[in-house]
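Re: that backbone. Tokens:
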């Protein structure tokens, strides 16, 4: 069996892995895992990833969890163009720096913004207190400012003059609040121009393909009671 990728394109790190593999012509078998149906909690998926999270990779007998680890594994195994994860010590360190920062900052605020503004009221039928959403959006704005000031600066891409895995991880995160109607690029022309450059490098068709699911999430039918109960433990932390 060749390379298998367990993904749900509703998930931002899954989108990053999907875009990276497709853009670099990496052959893989897509194994869909529907998060909103709780399929990541199944015994069958736990055999692939005991953490019960996507994305997950299976390459023969080898399995791997965590999106950053998967992106770097693919970049090394398939010898993709150097700009994705540069050999140059300091250029690679800049990519690593962003990947280390984003886990507890941009990812957290983007995910919480999407769930509080859209997924909770639309999918779960639960309104989040207004003050909670205001606080989350303020934290998102703070993270966006750091993204511009610390990482993008006056460069074309986050780690320098060329696109890297850092840009894929970042743009897929930012499309979460965009899907919920947050106009995060409207008052940030520098960030908006960066987004256009990333989309152009990825290719418009692939970018739209990867984000079709999340951009239609606002039209999801309400979840039934059993799904709500299944998702409750993991979702509650996002609603605070």
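Recovered sequence:
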């Amino acid at each position: 069996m060749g390379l298998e990728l367990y993904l749900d394109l509703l998930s931002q790190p899954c989108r990053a892995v999907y875009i990276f593999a497709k853009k670099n012509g990496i052959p893989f078998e897509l194994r869909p895992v529907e998060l909103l149906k709780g399929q990541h909690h199944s015994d069958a998926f736990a055999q692939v990833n005991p953490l019960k999270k996507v994305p997950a990779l299976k390459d023969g007998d080898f399995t791997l969890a965590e999106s950053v680890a998967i992106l770097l594994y693919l970049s090394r195994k398939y010898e993709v163009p150097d700009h994705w994860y540069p050999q140059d010590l300091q250029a690679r360190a800049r990519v690593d720096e962003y990947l280390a920062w984003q886990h507890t900052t941009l990812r957290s605020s983007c995910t919480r913004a999407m769930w509080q503004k859209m997924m909770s009221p639309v999918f779960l039928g639960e309104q989040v207190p207004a003050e909670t959403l205001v606080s989350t959006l303020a934290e998102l704005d703070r993270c966006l400012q750091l993204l511009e000031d610390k990482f993008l600066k006056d460069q074309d891409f986050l780690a320098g003059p060329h696109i890297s895995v850092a840009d894929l991880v970042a743009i897929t995160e930012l499309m979460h609040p965009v899907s919920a109607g947050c106009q995060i690029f409207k008052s940030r022309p520098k960030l908006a121009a960066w987004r256009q450059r990333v989309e152009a490098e990825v290719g418009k068709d692939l970018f739209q393909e990867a984000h079709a699911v999340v951009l239609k999430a606002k039209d999801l039918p309400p979840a039934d009671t059993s799904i709500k109960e299944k998702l409750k433990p993991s979702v509650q932390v996002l609603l605070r």
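The chain is about 60% helix and 5% strand. The radius of gyration is 18 Å.
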